[in-house]
Amino acid sequence: MRVFWEWDSLLLNDKTQVVSELQECTEWLESFFTQTGFFPSAQATVVRAFGMGTGGWALWVDADRKDVRIRRYDARMVIPLSWDEDRVTECAFVTRAFYRGQAVDQL
Question: Which of 64, 65, 69, 97 has the most CB within a 10 Å radius?
């Protein structure tokens, strides 16, 4: 676990910045990440990804509420769809949902 936390602190720390060539875009991203609490969540994702072998983030959009969030996924929730000897090029993310009172896995 110490190694995983060390990698997390190297990749995501107080000096980590997400920037764009357009200042207004950079300001929007900073506001979005602060509002959604992305970085603390991202740190936990990095730790789990190092521990379990993979992880990822994907956008979640609620069109009715006009809301966008970033969901995190660990190795148990990532399904590779296509790959080569170097990398995975496409994957699906599994989310737990409830349909008619039953727990289902949603891709």
Answer: 69
- C-alpha dihedral sign at 15, 19, 25, 29: negative
| Dihedral sign from CA coordinates of 14, 17, 23, 28 | negative
pLDDT tens figures, 66-94: 888 898 998 999 999 999 999 889 999 99
Structure tokens that stand for 96 in this block:
């737990």
3-state secondary structure of 17: coil
How far apart (Å, rounded) are the C-alpha atoms in residues 7 and 55? 14
Q: How many domains does the chain have?
A: 1
Which of these, 46, 38, 42, lies nearest to 5 by C-alpha position? 46
The pTM score is: 0.70
Domain that holds residue 19: 2-106
